[in-house]
Protein backbone atom coordinates (compact mmCIF):
# COMPACT_ATOMS: atom_id res chain seq x y z
CA UNK A 1 0.00 0.00 0.00
CA UNK A 2 1.21 3.51 -0.83
CA UNK A 3 -0.24 4.84 2.41
CA UNK A 4 1.96 3.10 4.98
CA UNK A 5 0.29 5.03 7.80
CA UNK A 6 -2.94 3.13 7.06
CA UNK A 7 -1.11 -0.09 7.98
CA UNK A 8 -0.98 1.00 11.63
CA UNK A 9 -3.46 -1.26 13.51
CA UNK A 10 -4.45 1.60 15.85
CA UNK A 11 -5.72 3.58 12.86
CA UNK A 12 -7.55 0.83 10.97
CA UNK A 13 -11.02 2.02 12.07
CA UNK A 14 -10.49 5.61 10.90
CA UNK A 15 -11.75 6.67 7.49
CA UNK A 16 -8.66 6.94 5.20
CA UNK A 17 -9.83 10.32 3.86
CA UNK A 18 -10.12 11.73 7.38
CA UNK A 19 -6.71 10.31 8.24
CA UNK A 20 -5.16 11.99 5.19
CA UNK A 21 -6.76 15.32 6.14
CA UNK A 22 -5.44 15.01 9.69
CA UNK A 23 -1.95 14.20 8.43
CA UNK A 24 -2.00 17.19 6.06
CA UNK A 25 -3.24 19.49 8.84
CA UNK A 26 -0.42 18.35 11.13
CA UNK A 27 2.15 18.96 8.37
CA UNK A 28 0.80 22.45 7.74
CA UNK A 29 0.84 23.22 11.46
CA UNK A 30 4.48 22.14 11.76
CA UNK A 31 5.54 24.03 8.63
CA UNK A 32 3.78 27.23 9.68
CA UNK A 33 5.19 26.98 13.20
CA UNK A 34 8.68 26.62 11.77
CA UNK A 35 8.14 29.46 9.33
CA UNK A 36 6.95 31.73 12.15
CA UNK A 37 9.76 30.49 14.44
CA UNK A 38 7.10 29.66 17.03
CA UNK A 39 8.14 28.29 20.38
CA UNK A 40 6.35 25.51 22.24
CA UNK A 41 4.31 27.99 24.33
CA UNK A 42 2.95 29.73 21.22
CA UNK A 43 2.08 26.41 19.59
CA UNK A 44 0.38 25.19 22.75
CA UNK A 45 -1.74 28.35 22.89
CA UNK A 46 -2.68 28.01 19.22
CA UNK A 47 -3.70 24.37 19.66
CA UNK A 48 -5.75 25.27 22.73
CA UNK A 49 -7.57 27.86 20.60
CA UNK A 50 -8.31 25.02 18.16
CA UNK A 51 -9.98 23.12 21.03
CA UNK A 52 -7.50 20.24 21.19
CA UNK A 53 -7.39 18.42 24.51
CA UNK A 54 -4.42 18.93 26.84
CA UNK A 55 -3.08 15.39 26.40
CA UNK A 56 -2.79 15.76 22.62
CA UNK A 57 -1.28 19.24 22.94
CA UNK A 58 1.36 17.93 25.35
CA UNK A 59 2.10 15.00 23.04
CA UNK A 60 2.43 17.28 20.00
CA UNK A 61 4.64 19.79 21.85
CA UNK A 62 6.86 16.99 23.17
CA UNK A 63 7.58 15.93 19.58
CA UNK A 64 7.92 19.45 18.14
CA UNK A 65 11.46 20.78 18.01
CA UNK A 66 11.82 24.33 16.65
CA UNK A 67 14.50 24.65 13.99
CA UNK A 68 15.74 27.27 11.58
CA UNK A 69 13.32 27.80 8.68
CA UNK A 70 14.14 25.85 5.56
CA UNK A 71 15.40 28.13 2.81
CA UNK A 72 16.61 25.55 0.31
CA UNK A 73 14.15 23.38 -1.58
CA UNK A 74 15.18 19.85 -2.53
CA UNK A 75 14.86 19.11 -6.23
CA UNK A 76 15.86 15.45 -6.22
CA UNK A 77 12.48 13.92 -6.93
CA UNK A 78 12.41 10.83 -9.10
CA UNK A 79 15.32 9.36 -11.02
CA UNK A 80 16.73 12.56 -12.48
CA UNK A 81 16.92 15.95 -10.78
CA UNK A 82 14.55 18.76 -11.64
CA UNK A 83 15.82 21.78 -13.54
CA UNK A 84 14.58 25.30 -12.92
CA UNK A 85 13.38 26.75 -16.23
CA UNK A 86 11.87 30.02 -15.01
CA UNK A 87 11.33 32.03 -11.85
CA UNK A 88 8.54 34.44 -11.06
CA UNK A 89 7.76 36.31 -7.88
CA UNK A 90 5.32 38.73 -6.36
CA UNK A 91 5.38 40.90 -3.30
CA UNK A 92 2.79 40.03 -0.67
CA UNK A 93 1.95 42.34 2.14
CA UNK A 94 0.26 40.83 5.20
CA UNK A 95 -1.80 43.50 6.91
CA UNK A 96 -3.47 41.38 9.59
CA UNK A 97 -2.93 37.91 10.99
CA UNK A 98 -5.55 35.31 12.01
CA UNK A 99 -6.07 37.05 15.36
CA UNK A 100 -6.78 40.34 13.51
CA UNK A 101 -3.62 41.93 14.90
CA UNK A 102 -2.03 44.40 12.51
CA UNK A 103 1.30 43.04 11.29
CA UNK A 104 2.32 44.94 8.13
CA UNK A 105 4.83 42.29 7.06
CA UNK A 106 6.06 42.17 3.45
CA UNK A 107 7.09 38.83 2.00
CA UNK A 108 7.81 37.40 -1.42
CA UNK A 109 5.91 34.55 -3.03
CA UNK A 110 8.41 32.82 -5.36
CA UNK A 111 7.39 30.34 -8.05
CA UNK A 112 10.00 28.11 -9.66
CA UNK A 113 8.96 26.49 -12.93
CA UNK A 114 10.70 23.13 -13.17
CA UNK A 115 11.12 20.37 -15.71
CA UNK A 116 12.69 16.95 -15.74
CA UNK A 117 14.54 15.01 -18.43
CA UNK A 118 11.85 12.32 -18.26
CA UNK A 119 8.61 13.49 -19.81
CA UNK A 120 6.57 13.48 -16.61
CA UNK A 121 4.82 16.70 -15.63
CA UNK A 122 5.97 18.38 -12.41
CA UNK A 123 4.13 20.99 -10.39
CA UNK A 124 5.76 24.34 -9.84
CA UNK A 125 7.72 24.79 -6.63
CA UNK A 126 6.17 27.64 -4.65
CA UNK A 127 7.47 29.12 -1.41
CA UNK A 128 7.21 32.30 0.61
CA UNK A 129 10.17 34.13 2.12
CA UNK A 130 11.21 37.42 3.67
CA UNK A 131 13.50 39.88 1.91
CA UNK A 132 16.44 38.68 4.00
CA UNK A 133 15.77 35.04 3.12
CA UNK A 134 15.44 35.93 -0.57
CA UNK A 135 18.73 37.89 -0.48
CA UNK A 136 20.39 34.90 1.21
CA UNK A 137 19.05 32.55 -1.47
CA UNK A 138 20.26 34.85 -4.29
CA UNK A 139 23.70 35.07 -2.65
CA UNK A 140 23.94 31.29 -2.38
CA UNK A 141 22.89 30.89 -6.02
CA UNK A 142 25.56 33.38 -7.11
CA UNK A 143 28.16 31.46 -5.08
CA UNK A 144 27.05 28.21 -6.73
CA UNK A 145 27.31 29.79 -10.20
CA UNK A 146 30.84 31.01 -9.44
CA UNK A 147 31.76 27.52 -8.22
CA UNK A 148 30.49 26.02 -11.49
CA UNK A 149 32.48 28.57 -13.51
CA UNK A 150 35.67 27.70 -11.62
CA UNK A 151 35.03 23.98 -12.07
CA UNK A 152 34.46 24.46 -15.82
CA UNK A 153 37.80 26.30 -16.17
CA UNK A 154 39.79 23.38 -14.73
Automatic annotation (TrEMBL):
Span of domain COMM:
83-152
* Short name of one Pfam family: COMM_domain
CDD domains found in the cross-reference section: Commd3 (cd04751)
GO BP annotations of the record are: sodium ion transport
Cited InterPro entries: COMM (IPR017920), COMMD3 (IPR037355)
Family affiliation:
Belongs to the COMM domain-containing protein 3 family.
Which PANTHER family has this protein been placed in?
Answer: COMM DOMAIN-CONTAINING PROTEIN 3
> Which protein, by its recorded name, is this?
COMM domain-containing protein 3
Amino acid sequence: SDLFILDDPDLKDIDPVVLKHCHAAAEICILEAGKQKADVAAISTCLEDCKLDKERIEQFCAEYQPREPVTVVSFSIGRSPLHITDVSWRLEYQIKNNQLDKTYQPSYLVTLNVENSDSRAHPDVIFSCTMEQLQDLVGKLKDAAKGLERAAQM
